[in-house]
Structure formats: C-alpha cells, structure tokens
Amino acid sequence: MDMFIVRGGERLSGSVTVSGAKNSALPLMAAALACEGETTLSSIPNLVDVTTQSRVLGSLGMDVQRDESGLLHLKTVDESACIADYDLVRRMRASVCVLGPLLAKRRMACVSLPGGCNIGDRPIDLHLKGLAALGAQIRVDRGYVIARADRLRGANIFLGGAFGSTVTGTCNVMIAATLAEGTTTIESAACEPEVVDVGNFLNACGARIEGLGTPFLKIEGVERLQAVEHEVIPDRIEAATLMIAAAMTGGDVQLNEVRPDHITAVMEKLREIGVTIQLEYPQQPERRQSVWVKVTQPLKSVDCIALPYPGIPTDVQAQLMSLLACVPGISIVTDKVFPDRFMHASELARMGAKIRRESASAILNGVSRLSGACVMASDLRASAALVLAGLAAEGETVIRRIYHLDRGYECLEEKLIALGANVQRVKDEPENMPESLKLTDGEERPTYSELLDALTGPHWNLNSSEKPTPSAEG
Ligand SMILES: CC(=O)N[C@H]1[C@@H](OP(=O)(O)OP(=O)(O)OC[C@H]2O[C@@H](n3ccc(=O)[nH]c3=O)[C@H](O)[C@@H]2O)O[C@H](CO)[C@@H](O)[C@@H]1O
Ligand SMILES: C=C(OP(=O)(O)O)C(=O)O
C-alpha cells in the first residue's frame, strides 16, 4: 500500500490540464453493453476504477482495449454472460450501471450489490423501482440483484428519493428505457452533467431521449443502438479540487479543459470566499476552456451546502471543508446528498482543524494554519481533502491508504508536483515515515521527547514553571 508525504507551504502556480470525468466514463462504458458494434471513447482517464469497470465488462463478454493513443474500444464478443461478480462489483459504485443495459439487451442480469466509497447509506431501491416499472422481475438474493424480463415496456417513472434524485439510478433506467417498447418518462431524473453525457452518447447511437439536463426525461424506445465514437466530458470534480488547491496555497493556477457551466456553483462559492476566478470565454461557459484561479486578498469564511446539480456537488464538500478549516471565522458546511459524509472531519481535526458535527452539518472555526500530522484517507474525496490540507499545512503530513485516491484522480500527485507542490508517494512502511512523524514502538505518533518539548516549550503563558516528570519511557 502507498502513502503520500506532503510537505506543506508551497504556493501552487503554473498550468494544469483536467482529465476526463470518472463519473461519466464509468456509466458510458456500461452503456456500451447496450450497443451493436464497437464503441470508442476518448478522454477516458487512466484510473483504477476504469480498470475495474473494464474487468466487469470483460466478465460480461466484452472486449475492452485501450490503444496507444489512449482511446478505449469496447465491443461485445459474447452475449451469453450475464453475471457481474461480487469480487469486482464490490470495488466501485458505477459497476451497478451494467444492470440496465444487461436487462435491455440480454433480458437477464445477475449483478452483485455494488460497493463504492463509504460515504453513508447507498441503497439502490430507486434503480430497482425504475427497472421494475419497465417490466423487469427482480429479486435480491444473497447479495445479488437477479433480474429477468421477456421484454421491457415504456412506463411513467418517478425516480425521486428522500435526498433528491439518483445519478447512477437515472443512468441505469435511462439506458434500459432506450431499448424498451414505447415511451418512458422519468420524473425527478438527475440533472448532473455526467447523466447528460451518457444521454448524449446514447442519442448519438440512435436513442431518442429528450429533456437531458432537466428533471423530466422523455424516452422513445428504439430497436437498436449503433455504437459511435464519443469524447468524455472534463472532470468537474477534479477541476474543483485543483481550484481549491490553488486557493488553499495562495496560488496562481491556470486550469485547462474546464467546462465552467458544470461548476458554476463551486466557482461562485470560491468567489464568495474571496478567490479570483477568470474564464477564457466568459460569454461561453458551456465551452471547454482555460480558467485562472488566484488569491490576491485574505479569504473569508462562508456557509455552503452540497446539493444535487446544479448545486455544489457532494463530491467537492470535503475539499471545501479543508479550505474553510483554514479560513479564520465560522463556516458551516452541510451535505444534503450524503448527510453522513464527514469521515474527513476527524482526520482534519488531527491537523488542528476545529470542527464540530451537527447532523448533516459541520461547523468550522477556521484556524490561521493547519499543522502536518499522520492521517488516514477513508474515501476518494476525503483523500483529496487531506492532500489539500497537507499542501496548506505547516510541516509534513502523511496520508495513508491513498489507494482511494487512485480510484478516481488521474495522476493527481504528478499534476500537483508540476504546479510546485511537494508531494511524495512512498510505500507505507515504518522506515518511510518522515522524522517529524517517526514511528515509535510501531505506532505513528510523535516521539516522547517531542511531546515533552511541546509540554514544556516557551509558548505557554502560565505562571507555573512546573515540569512534567519523565516516565520510565523517557
Ligand atoms: C459513480 C458515480 O457517479 N458516483 C456518484 C453518484 O453516486 P450514486 O449514483 O451512487 O449516488 P446517488 O445520486 O444515487 O445518491 C444520491 C442520494 O440518493 C440516495 N439514493 C440513491 C439511490 C437509490 O436507489 N436510493 C436512494 O435513496 C442516496 O443514498 C443518496 O442520498 O452520485 C453521487 C451524488 O452526486 C456522487 O457522490 C458519486 O460520486
Ligand atoms: C463517491 C464517489 O465515487 P463512487 O460513487 O464510485 O463511490 C466519488 O466519485 O466521489
């Protein structure tokens, strides 16, 4: 297992290019299952999740190859396989997106309940409700969704849940409905750009989906989908993460290949915090372009709420929290999509952040500087948040379990290093721990003498000059 050592305090500057969106690439790959012929996808990021999805599709009879120029080619070579095994599907959420296309194309599917980031309750009841409405018979048995359908028929489906719409659920039902007989309407469909990207791909293949990007989709079923070439949209979550990295280091960064219209809410929030953001083509936010992010004034505390699109994405909540943890003043960060997605809070607290949880919110009392510590990544965006915190912190931060990060960010450390960050990937072995966080007796903690120094150092404003008695350990 690898870990990162981040030496904080470097100001990020220069230019960086955003990769293709993970959360588009994965359902797009699944959608290729529903197509005749060869699908070719460009701007597919090189990620562990993409490798896992390729393996899921390989186990379902698809030939998936990445060529030297980075294009991903997907083609069905055997239609008989319909079982997506636990061992692969448990690794990530988007693998559940094979359910809809398998049902539509092969009339049967057996797909393990999916894994993914541990960010709270992640049921798939709405996926199943939508597919059942299209005529599928569905059972859940020993951790697998087992579904069959003689044929799928269009239906009127309400896909809203307690926390709004479902992103992968909308993809699943939308893909299945493109090959159903007759008309399907989906109310409370997710409006996220990744859903629109999948819908645009399906339409290019011959599907007839109207209303993409709105909560109301109308889908006229067609007989077949003919595979095409498609370019994945830029990753708005990576773009937002890099913008926040620039903001946290007082940087001056040019981001290339950004769709500003996909991250309006994040850019507005950063502007409210005091970050300067300029677009190459301000009148055409829907165009891929460069965006400049820089800090020229002290930043201000703000409140922010993660919501379904077009709100601030829940996938950026942790990174914003890192930023606000070191902006003096009170900020409240609320997550309305995953109300328990706060695993990063306790790790940020290890770095000196002052955070109090209250149901779906975290109340931050921003400090002027975080301090390096040994922290543990718990999920993908929490890992990113800890890396950002490390960039801004004083001293060295060790982030363990960064395999989460490798699931969803293409070359993050290379990109940060190119911007001037001091980030090192090393094996998670005791001998690789930096001196400042060196292991003692096999545990990650400061040395005894460092703790003694901290207790007796000159920074205390006390009358008592009493010194602690060194224990036997000392
Ligand atoms: C691979 C992928 O694209 N992952 C993204 C996708 O996850 P994913 O598609 O799993 O997230 P959903 O949009 O489905 O979840 C949103 C909310 O709906 C609830 N819910 C969802 C489905 C369901 O059947 N029943 C139900 O109640 C969830 O518990 C959650 O509270 O959207 C999330 C919300 O933007 C992002 O954080 C993930 O990065
Ligand atoms: C939560 C995420 O991914 P997944 O849905 O694959 O767990 C994410 O991308 O932040």
Automatic annotation (TrEMBL):
Write the Enzyme Commission number(s) for this entry.
2.5.1.7
- SUPFAM superfamilies reported in the protein's UniProt record: EPT/RTPC-like (SSF55205)
One of its Pfam families is EPSP_synthase
Please give the pathway this protein is involved in: Cell wall biogenesis; peptidoglycan biosynthesis
> Could you say which residues bind UDP-N-acetyl-alpha-D-glucosamine here?
R93, R122, P123, I124, D125, L126, D315, V337
Stretches assigned to the Enolpyruvate transferase domain:
6-416
Q: What does this protein do?
A: Cell wall formation. Adds enolpyruvyl to UDP-N-acetylglucosamine.
Name the record gives this protein: UDP-N-acetylglucosamine 1-carboxyvinyltransferase
User: From which organism does this entry originate?
Assistant: Gimesia benthica
